[in-house]
Design a protein that fits this description.
heterodimer; A: Rossmann fold; six-stranded mixed β-sheet; 9 helices; 12 strands; about 35% helix; globular; B: mainly alpha; ABC transporter involved in vitamin B12 uptake, BtuC; two-stranded antiparallel sheet; about 70% helix
């Protein structure tokens, strides 16, 4: 880390589902104007961590800090109000509504309190998409259902970018995309980062990580086991960290050392 | 600022005529309606295409129009309301009883009766909505329950004997400038429902809930609360439909209205409303009400056995919906794959945020 206060930070987060401890004291931090990749094997707790940090679920223990101040998210709306947006893997778009309606869904601009300010929302969507360099979605009044997978992904990410003021979580945004569409999404991610937002990229695609991330945090068995600056990371090193062969987290959180060793041995 | 984004393989497919047609609701239905009108005009122009016959038909479909507007909202949320007929009966009965108990004449008593008829509809609608949205009982079951209970309640209130009352007769049978009040009232309801559905945030949320309830919830829409409001609206319109029916026929009709729910659903479906939710329009529903309305009227004029109605309407209904779906698939430029993906995201009862892998895989294959 560069010494600046992270825009969003989780410390010692614990989340248990019945007998399964999805998060066992996980730490996580994202700084403004950077892309932080969150990687880890299936079941490492990535999704749970995102849910906790975006208000979808509440942690059993631990704390969340926003700009260094402790906060509690009771609902995703609390997180939204504080400028934290999430792009879910299934995109959470209403397929029958157009891009503009989806972009403003739940936060419609109104006229006389009850009517959709349809034209204003359309204009604003077109402008926001253009500012983000999203040129693939030419017609914001076509139902999202009629768009391609890459275009839908662009709509979902652009929507979050429109509303996010601090942090965007992207849950496997390139998992279902081809090479060209993936490149566009990564470009979009850089664009969002350059606006000064903290971007959290959850992915299994390590080349994407090395391509776009400024920092990498590795999660294993519900804990952070390694962090890298991009320049220090290689695919081999990331794989070692994901599989538990490598850990460097002692630098970050000395108290975790003994337990990390256990995790590392497993 | 990065590499130039050009359409390339990301383009949505042909954006030709079919695509634009796909965005116009119920084109085919309008064509069916036009063909029907043309047919009867040619076969019986002297009696069919007259102002009087037009007004008579409008008068006949007014009650169903009001009820079907409510059904349209419900269908767009991917729900169904089988109780609309029972609620109409309850509306009649409660309105008639209220008017009689209030003294039986005068504008105030009439207004009280109308309000009571609508009120009982709202009550049943709220019960439907709570059962569906909060108790998570399927709409088909909840509204089947209130359908059975509604008739039963109407019978208890009246001891099973229909209540004659002429207080509202002027609304049902009077005219202003040659146009029956009941037709104007129906038009008013259509206008209000159309504005509500197509121009307000409430209407947009109705589409969103039916299109992808999970997505609606995640952007902060109170989905259960919205469903309660939609079923309450359908109940209110059904109750009001009952009031109009009382006004038209000067008596309650406990044995009637049995086919109302299905006729309302048929009308909405004819008009392009999808029973899977997310799609529909009030204008389409109005045309969907008129198709069987005109058919009934024309058959009588031509002197054909009225028993043929059901077969003809049934065929037209299925053919229309089949063609409409086919057209939408072509217009969307996709096969069934994407639709499948989205449908599964909407209906699956899974915890938030959980990725649904199989559909994603399907989608990938569909695009490679």
């Amino acid at each position: 880390m560069n010494g600046s206060t992270p825009v969003l930070e989780g410390r010692g987060l614990v989340r248990t589902y019945g007998t399964v401890q999805a998060l066992q004291g996980a730490d996580f931090a994202v700084e403004a104007g950077t892309v932080t990749a969150l990687i880890g094997d299936n079941g490492a707790g990535k999704s749970t961590l995102v849910k906790v940090l975006s208000g979808v679920e509440q942690p059993d223990d631990g704390m969340i800090l926003l700009d260094g101040q402790p906060v509690v998210f009771r609902t995703p709306m609390d997180a939204h109000r504080l400028g934290i947006e999430t792009v879910f893997q299934d995109l959470a778009l209403a397929p029958h509504l157009d891009a503009a309606a989806n972009a403003f869904l739940g936060r419609e601009l109104r006229r006389f309190g009850v009517f959709n300010a349809r034209r204003a929302m359309r204009r604003s969507t077109i402008k926001s998409f253009a500012d983000l360099g999203v040129t693939t979605v030419q017609d914001v009044s076509a139902p999202v259902m009629s768009l391609s997978g890459g275009q839908r992904q662009a709509v979902a990410i652009a929507r979050s970018a429109m509303w996010a003021k601090r942090v965007i979580f992207l849950d496997e945004p390139t998992a279902a995309l081809g090479v060209v569409q993936t490149r566009r999404v990564l470009d979009l991610i850089r664009q969002i980062r350059d606006r000064g937002l903290g971007v959290v990229l959850i992915t299994h695609t390590l080349p994407d990580v090395l391509d776009v991330a400024d920092r990498v945090e590795v999660l294993r068995f519900g804990r952070r086991t390694a962090t890298f600056d991009r320049d220090d990371a290689t695919v081999e090193l990331l794989v070692s960290a994901i599989t538990g062969v490598y850990s460097n987290v002692a630098v970050e959180a000395p108290t975790d050392v003994t337990e990390i060793d256990i995790a590392g041995g497993g | 600022m990065n590499s130039g984004h050009h359409d390339g393989d990301d383009s949505a497919g042909q954006r030709g005529l079919l695509k634009r047609l796909g965005s116009v609701t119920a084109v085919y239905t309008v064509a069916v309606f036009a063909a029907e009108v043309l047919f009867f005009s040619i076969r019986a122009s002297d009696r069919f295409l007259t102002t009087n016959n037009l007004i008579l038909t409008a008068q006949n479909v007014a009650v169903l129009t009001v009820v079907a507007c409510g059904a349209t909202f419900v269908l767009i949320t991917a729900g169904v309301d089988l109780s609309v007929g029972s609620v109409a009966i309850l509306g009649e009965v409660v309105a008639a009883k209220t008017i009689i108990n209030a003294g039986g004449s005068g504008w105030f008593d009439a207004a009280l009766g109308i309000a009571a008829g609508i009120g009982v509809g709202v009550l049943v609608g709220v019960i439907n909505g709570v059962g569906i949205a909060y108790l998570k009982v399927p709409p088909l079951i909840v509204t089947l329950g209130t359908m059975l209970a509604g008739v039963s309640a109407a019978q208890i209130i009246t001891d099973g004997v229909n209540v004659p009352n002429r207080t509202l007769s002027r609304i049902g049978n009077g005219r202003v400038g040659g146009i029956p009040y009941i037709v104007l009232v129906g038009l008013g309801v259509v206008a209000v429902a159309g504005v509500l559905l197509h121009f307000t945030v409430f209407g947009r949320h109705t589409y969103a809930v039916g299109s992808n309830a999970d997505a609606a919830r995640r952007v902060g829409i109170n989905v259960p609360g919205h469903l309660v409001k939609v079923y309450a609206l359908a109940g209110a319109l059904s109750g009001f439909g009952g009031v109009l029916s009382l006004a038209r026929f000067n008596t309650t009709s406990i044995g009637g209205h049995q086919s109302d729910p299905l006729e309302a659903i048929a009308a909405a479906a004819l008009g392009g409303t999808s029973v899977f939710g997310g799609v529909g329009s009030i204008a389409g529903t109005v045309v969907g009400v008129w198709i069987p309305g005109v058919l009934r009227n024309g058959i009588i004029i031509l002197g054909v056995q009225p028993y043929w109605q059901g077969i003809i309407i049934g065929l037209v209904l299925v053919a229309t919906v089949w063609f409409d779906q086919y057209r939408r698939r072509v217009a969307a430029g996709t096969g069934g794959l994407r639709r499948t993906r989205f449908r599964s995201t909407r209906t699956a009862d899974r915890p938030a945020h959980q990725p649904i892998h199989p559909p994603t895989t399907t989608n990938q294959e569909g695009e490679s």
